[in-house]
Description:
Layout lengths: L12 H8 L2 H5 L12 H11 L6 E5 L5 H10 L4 E6 L2 H14 L3 E5 L12 E6 L6 E2 H5 L1 E12 L7 E8 L5 E6 L16 E4 L7 E4 L4 H13 L1 E4 L7 H11 L4 E6 L2 E9 L14 E6 L3 E5 L4 H15 L9 E7 L2 E7 L1
Parallel strand pairs: 1-2, 1-4, 2-3, 4-6
Antiparallel strand pairs: 5-17, 6-7, 7-8, 9-10, 10-12, 11-15, 12-13, 13-14, 14-15, 16-17
Helix pairs in contact: 1-4
Amino acid sequence: MISTRSTIVGTDAVADAARAVPHEIYLGPDGEAVKPVISRSSTWQDLRSLDLRPRMRVLQVGTGSGYPAALMAHIVGPGGHVLTIDPDEALTSRAGDLFAAHGHRAIAATGNGLAGHPGRAPYDRIVVAGTPAAIPAAWIDQLAPGGVLVTGCSVSDLPGAYAVAHIVKTPADDLHVTVHAGRYPFMQSPVVPSHVTVVTATDQPGYYLASASDDHQTTTAFLTLLRAGTAGPWPGPPGEFLDFKHWLLARQPRGLFTAVTERGEGVGIGDRAPSNFGLAARSDGPPEAVMITPTHLVTHPQESPTWARFLDLMDEWRAEASRTTHELDAVIWRDGDSYHVRLND
């Protein structure tokens, strides 16, 4: 007997829209008509974070398959409008044809999504399934009072420090931001500030280590140590990695760095061991480095003072009930034509 029970979880507006808009229309029978593929469940989760309601005006930056825009159009109804914009004319043309063919009240426009779409502003919701180098002021300017912007963002000057920002524009035009663990694809090449030192491996340019130190030699030594270091299992559930990483980025302990090595993308601390029985400055001793990735705790040398300090930091985080990313303080400020988001301890 074939079950007719829906596999869509929930009874809210997003679930109702998902039942009304067959995903096969947009994603294809194998769910891979447009790449990169965002799973249906992730799409539903993202839309739930928007708290969409009838009659809302929505701008989506990054058209993709067109499926999210069709869902949003169903939720906001005939009294609202959804416009999706993308620089890829093939994507917007495909989505526009599907909207028209199936009666989904969304509009697809070809253009630079970083500039938003002022012709239909202001918007009650702006959703961006990508990470810009910095948040364009155009998005904030086109957001209606009381509106919400959800976008990927950088939360540190160090490379690899990305998350999802949920920005609310109050009726008084103030901005409140909450940061959530997650990552969207890059919309632009990341910009590394001049005060950040980035070194790459000579044999693998994709491997790097970045720190706020201006000591290029020591930063290079940290990368070398990590590649040769001892790798044990990450001491916690895999899902906790991003929350601990973001807590470290907010805390900014001495010697903080981000890196990519054979063991994956991670965050850690580096220092120099005391020499002359601890009587000399730490900068005179041999380098030590410790890093975590989603799967490993990498250290070299083993059981060093830096390793012990790193474990103390992890204990501090545990003592704070393993604070999640969205429980950390975050600030947002304008710098010329863009906004920046940072985490605070």
